[in-house]
Amino acid sequence: MTATLPSQKRRIFDSPIQKNKTTPQRKRIPKWVDVDDEDERIGQRKRQNGSLKHAPQAHSTPPRKKARTSGPPPPSPAKAGIQEHRKQLPIAKGKDALVQEIRANDVTVLLGETGSGKTTQIPQYLLEAGFADAGMIGITQPRKVAATELAARVSVEQGTPLGGLIGYGIRFDEKSSAATRVKYMTDGMLTRELLGDPLLSKYAVIIVDEAHERTLRTDLLLANLKRILRERNGKGEGKPQVNGKGKEREKDRNPLKVVIMSATLDAEKFSQFFSNAKIIYVKGRQHPVKIFHAAQGQTDYVDAALRTFFQVHVDQPPGDVLIFLPGQEDIESLEKSIQMFARQLPPGHDEVLTVPMYAALSGAQLHRTFAPTPRKTRKCILATNIAETSITIPGVRYVIDTGKVKEKRYLAGSTGGGFDTLLTRDINKSNAMQRAGRAGREGPGFCYRLYTEDAFLGMAASTEPEILRCSLAQAMLQLLCIGQDIQDLDLMDMPDVDAISSALRTLFLLGALDSQRELTDLGRAMAALPLEPTHARAVLASKDLNCTAEVLDIVSVLSANGALFLDATDKRAEIAEARRKFIHRSGDHLTILNTVRAYRAAGGADGENASGHVNGHGDGEEEKEEKVGRSARKEWARAHFINERTLREASSIRDQLRLSCTRAGIDWRASCGEQEDPVLLSLAHGLAQNTALIAPDGSYKQVMGQSVVKIHPSSSMADKKVPAIIYDELVYTNHIYARGVSSISKSYFNSLGAFNRREA
Ligand SMILES: Nc1ncnc2c1ncn2[C@@H]1O[C@H](COP(=O)(O)OP(=O)(O)OP(=O)(O)O)[C@@H](O)[C@H]1O
């Protein structure tokens, strides 16, 4: 059935779009094909094929209401009463049956449609049923923002302050206490906990959410959970323990319950992995989502998203819009266009508030997404796939899906020396369904897909597991610390031997492994720092070179999410002039150091942490001074086009790294003052593989690899020719670019590999 959007008849947006030279009127407004909710159809097909084993009667779909196309959005959960809202979720009907199944099985695979209530409710059901008496309930998420937002939501539902009964843990940020019984965390945090507690003994239940995303961390976690189940629960994980005797044994053994939660695909694979664990299907979602596909494929997805957004804005009732785009550049370009056209709207239309959402933004910036939308305003969230799973963005009623995503992929060089890069690709069915699912959270929703139904049907079912396409160095280092060799692990998918060899080579060059592939003391020390192996190696090298204070300043900024330097195309000259004084001739790393120092000096004493951790002891005078310092630093950052949030985030990361250094016996106060060599040399120890020498044609050739790289235009080294460079990362666009570049003397860089190995 083909339907056209109501607004297509009134092409009032052709005129402002025509005026825009950057988006000429070359494309037609997408036509939409109206289909049923295919999540539902896929679920049905699977059930008919018998691939879904178990569907408790209690979980019948509530009668579907016809999608509302007009009128005010339904009352917010806050108004309707949060407990009432919980009871109305589809999952609530099967609460008792679910708790019973989880009690009866070591492993349960739970399959549910988006919005059925899995992520927020299952942990609460288990809490309320007493599962947390024997240990904590841990729920893993692939993404930080989901972990923090879910913990916040569930603590509201429980009526307790965040960090009390309900907490969260993500890298460099923890909100939990002795009272915490339910903890949301990233899968990376839980795999890190294996270092100190290989049996995860403080947990009674581990819930692996969004398992279908198959992140590297999730896969490692699943392999470890299988081992832990064997050790904590005895043989035969996945088998029921039904009688009273079983319960006795449970108590003695401190058994673990594992719940794997996934979208509507791939359940069989998880079940088989856990010895045919029971699959429970949670049927139904709270609100229907009407899906429209483009009648023709769109070549310019940013332009198509722009037109679709304004069609929605002009023709459709209130409700916020969530647009999925592959990356930051597209987000920024679309944001500018939307703002420009919104200003040209005739009077009478609601304001448009754009909010970007991508991983490089800080927590506080991301939080803006969840803030209530002002009256007479339509919020337009422009997001990467970080908004794709688990989260509910209150107010979102419309989703526009470009069908694109950026995916990390390891590009191996022909003779080694590969690198992780982000490539834009088409999404798969699972992504498409999750994206649509973001629209039906608080009421009926609408999803506009900028690709055809045929394109949807031809999509791969799910993503290729990350373990098959990413660098394995950090993961393998952590595994080695708990005595595990990746090749001996019982993984759902085994990575390629070349990828394993490449990671071993990196770890060997960093000095984390010796020539027998045994973990060295240096490797163990690297794993103890909550940093990438390269940065951890730099911090450890700084100990001998007496410059830990400087290296921590730099590494903290590199570990922060946001960009340090803000950019504005129309102010390039002004920006360059403002920053000239802290650009360091040796490159980007010392430029970062200069920036951190200038920021600190702008506020007076060394107390830049917004929380006042460093020197705020709360007496009146100090507090006043700190307040003055904060506003001076803010003003300084604004005047120099520096992202102050990044510096504040870096400051809190540095506080945590100082603690880790103290634990590791490293004096974090050790400073080399104005000397630059010790700092660069420390960094070079970590970046030993990221080195390149100048070639006669002025390009740079990797030392440990064959790639010819260019210096990224954003680097302070972009126009310079120096004999040798180190760099933080390579990015691949039309060329291979090195980003985060510093010049380094050939004399000490030549011996780096040997140096790391000698120390090890
Ligand atoms: N932060 C929030 N604000 C308002 N409502 C929320 C919030 N978080 C969850 N909800 C409500 O709870 C419902 C269930 O959310 P939950 O995350 O548990 O679903 P789910 O089944 O895990 O779906 P998904 O896998 O898509 O995340 C949402 O549809 C929404 O109505």
From TrEMBL:
Q: Where is this region: Disordered?
A: 1-84, 234-253, 604-630
One of this protein's Pfam families, by short name? HA2_C
Q: What CDD domains does the record point to?
A: DEXHc_DHX33 (cd17978), SF2_C_RHA (cd18791)
Supply one GO CC term from the record: nucleolus
Q: Where are the transmembrane segments?
A: none
According to its UniProt record, the EC number is 3.6.4.13
- Record SMART domains: DEXDc (SM00487), HA2 (SM00847), HELICc (SM00490)
- Which molecular-function annotation in GO is an example for this chain? RNA helicase activity
For whether the record's keyword set contains ATP-binding, the answer is yes
Q: What class of enzyme is it?
A: hydrolase
Q: Which reaction does it catalyse?
A: ATP + H2O = ADP + phosphate + H(+)
Q: Name one GO biological process term.
A: positive regulation of transcription by RNA polymerase I
Name the keywords, alphabetized.
Answer: ATP-binding, Helicase, Hydrolase, Nucleotide-binding
Q: Which InterPro entries match?
A: AAA_22 (IPR049945), DEAD-box_helicase_OB_fold (IPR011709), DNA/RNA_helicase_DEAH_CS (IPR002464), HA2_WH (IPR048333), Helicase-assoc_dom (IPR007502), Helicase_ATP-bd (IPR014001), Helicase_C-like (IPR001650), P-loop_NTPase (IPR027417)
Per UniProt, residues of the Helicase ATP-binding domain are 99-283
Q: Which residues form the Helicase C-terminal domain?
A: 305-483
Name of the molecule in the record: RNA helicase
Native organism taxonomy: Eukaryota, Fungi, Dikarya, Basidiomycota, Agaricomycotina
